[in-house]
Design goal:
Elements lengths: L7 E5 L6 H14 L4 E6 L5 H5 L9 E4 L2 E6 L1 H13 L2 H9 L1 H9 L3 H14 L2 E2 L2 E2 L3 E5 L3 H17 L4 H13 L5 E8 L2 H18 L3 E9 L6 H12 L1 H11 L5 H29 L4 E4 L8 H17 L2
Parallel strand pairs: 1-7, 1-8, 2-4, 2-7, 8-9, 9-10
Antiparallel strand pairs: 3-4, 5-6
Helix pairs in contact: 1-13, 3-4, 3-6, 6-7, 6-8, 7-8, 7-9, 9-12
């Protein structure tokens, strides 16, 4: 099946690699292909609204573009929704959750936040209207790599402990969704640097050996474009090796222009590009597949215009990667 034919696309990666940005750009790419998409941001911070140029998100899905919804998936809101379905009286549930002792016990209890969050994603995936799914694809901006692995492993742990009951039944449904190769893919976003690449390799191994979640794509973010084409590279080398030529240019153009400083910057960028290519080669050898390159965008801030540039590129590259 093609990448965008999956129902749930999970994104993780080391903190600071642009995971949320790539998740949002992939959602826009899905919309460009005629899909109805929703982005679920998981975690304590909320940065998706800044990227999408929209008001702050809440637990209630909000339409943020044509056929594009977004929400902040808060575990306490998901717990309230779940309990209301069981008890049927919202006021009783809210009073119960406001109790300080209950809140304290909830903070201390391990695993329930992850499980209730994954359960909400399962509910979104199963939501249909007029014989069609409400959302064709659900994009999950999951926690960063370290927490991301434990986040996705919680259903396994719960099932190893519980032997019967409604929680076990619902957890089995969650686990079935996230291990279903026809419906779910785990994707990793990385920078072509040593630590992010190491973590990308780690979660690739964990997907098959620990999580049993189908692995999708590795997105290499902020890849530098080639600094010089062949002809301009010859000019660069001539300037670098000819002191007299550099001095003549400096004299002609006058301060503050300085060829020596300009060439030093160029050399630093060339070295950074060389290191990126080395890390990419190591990453592709480790995972046994090509990565999806996402170029560095030189913009003051990322907004919807830049996201659409990335989305157009992802449509082409993900289609080519089938």
């Amino acid at each position: 099946m093609a990448f965008f034919d999956k129902r749930v696309l999970v994104f993780t990666g080391k903190g600071g690699v642009g995971k949320t940005t790539l998740c949002a750009a992939t959602a826009l790419a899905a919309v460009k292909l005629g899909k109805r998409a929703i982005i679920c941001e998981v975690g304590a911070t909320e940065s998706l609204s800044f990227i999408l140029d929209c008001p702050r998100l809440s637990y209630e899905p909000r339409l943020v573009g044509e056929n594009l919804w977004a929400m902040k998936l808060n575990p306490y809101d998901a717990l309230e929704e779940y309990l209301v379905k069981q008890v049927k009286i919202k006021s009783v549930v809210r009073q119960f959750l406001k109790n300080r002792i209950i809140h304290y016990l909830a903070e201390a209890a391990p695993g329930w936040r992850e499980l209730i969050t994954l359960g909400k994603i399962m509910v979104l995936e199963a939501k249909w209207a007029h014989k069609k799914p409400v959302y064709d694809v659900i994009l999950v901006d999951a926690p960063a790599t370290g927490h991301g692995i434990s986040f996705l492993r919680v259903p396994q742990v719960v099932l190893s402990v519980l032997k019967f009951g409604p929680i076990k039944t619902n957890t089995e449904r969650v686990q079935k969704l996230f291990t279903d190769r026809k419906r779910t893919l785990l994707n990793v976003v990385t920078l072509l640097e040593e630590m992010p690449v190491n973590e990308a390799v780690e979660i690739h191994k964990a997907a098959s050996q620990v999580l049993r979640i189908p692995f999708g794509q590795v997105f290499a973010n902020q890849v530098l474009p080639p600094l010089f084409a062949n002809r301009t590279d010859k000019t660069y080398r001539a300037l670098r090796d000819d002191d007299a030529l550099r001095d003549a240019i400096d004299a002609k153009l006058s301060a503050p222009f300085n060829m020596e400083q300009m060439l030093s910057c160029a050399e630093a960028e060339r070295e950074r590009g060389r290191l990126q290519r080395e890390h990419q080669k190591r990453l592709e050898e480790a995972i046994g597949a090509r990565v999806i390159e996402v170029p560095q965008l030189f913009a003051r801030r990322l907004g919807t215009a830049e996201l659409n540039v990335l989305a157009d590129l992802l449509v082409k590259r993900l289609e080519a990667a089938k």
